[in-house]
Amino acid sequence: MGVQKLPLAKAINESLRTALDTDPKVLIMGEDVGKLGGVFRVTDGLQKDFGEDRVIDTPLAESGIVGTAIGLALRGYRPVVEIQFDGFVFPAYDQIVTQLAKMHARALGKIKMPVVIRIPYGGGIGAVEHHSESPEALFAHVAGLKVVSPSNSSDAYWMMQQAIQSDDPVIFFEPKRRYWDKSEVDTESIPAPLHKARVAREGTDLTLAAYGPMVKVCLEAAAAAAEEGKSLEVVDLRSMSPIDFDAVQASVEKTRRLVVVHEAPVFLGTGAEIAARITERCFYHLEAPVLRVGGFHAPYPPARLEEEYLPGLDRVLDTVDRSLAY
């Protein structure tokens, strides 16, 4: 394919197509992933090209979908499961945390669990309840699971490849409001390691750390701050479990300030762990406490209110100003 400018959703589609074409043990399963191509058309055309035995439309039963994927993994397959929306994952939560995450340890390393669970997540699309949530911290807390989220098309393509090739289960959170954002994908490049953070923008005055849908907001905040003479560094974490604390530490030792941004509620969110770790690691470098920006500790609101609920440019810049004021 070479270098192309693709929407994030199409990059995932191309990555799944490559995996299906390369490895006959790769299967795709989920509600409406076949004939419909998924509600966001991420799997569009794959059943037509690879058949109903490789791209499987399942019943509306998330626990059964994940349980079946675990059985297939035990038989040597590499299933890629789609959970249609973030809020639909909870019927499968028991299978994920008590079976999928524990099987490798339970078998003393003799059993691998190469299962990828794709979850479109986050808000910004005007959806109803249970269609806009950010439950990543619930999975990052569970030992035995890898948890990642791309913010751009190139990472979406390569991180999906790496997730499918992993012998450990990967929860792959896809920022649904970025599905249609285009960026370049080079399918012949050498990708960064799956859990390695990247510096998306260099800066000297403060570090913004984010992942998934909030990376774009942080880049916009850095551009706006630059007009006022403030130099913000943006670190795209890419992975919520494990977290590349070394990359965040290196940035904070340079900028001496950190603001962590995610859509999920601030209370007990991923940012809390990052704040605690960086405070421990960088205590003598920090010139301000680590601050966090995120959603409110409340159920996700109706579409008319979601712009008030979601952390946006103004909320990020206000927090930047608070940090710089110390």
UniProtKB/TrEMBL annotation:
Single annotated GO MF: oxidoreductase activity
Record's keyword terms, sorted: Oxidoreductase, Thiamine pyrophosphate
Record CDD domains: TPP_PYR_E1-PDHc-beta_like
Pfam families reported for this sequence: Transket_pyr (PF02779), Transketolase_C (PF02780)
Gene3D superfamilies: 3.40.50.920, 3.40.50.970
Domain Transketolase-like pyrimidine-binding: 6-181
SMART domains in UniProt: Transket_pyr
Cofactors: thiamine diphosphate
EC number(s) on file: 1.2.4.-
Descriptive protein name: Alpha-ketoacid dehydrogenase subunit beta
Organism: Streptomyces longisporoflavus
Source species taxonomy: Bacteria, Bacillati, Actinomycetota, Actinomycetes, Kitasatosporales
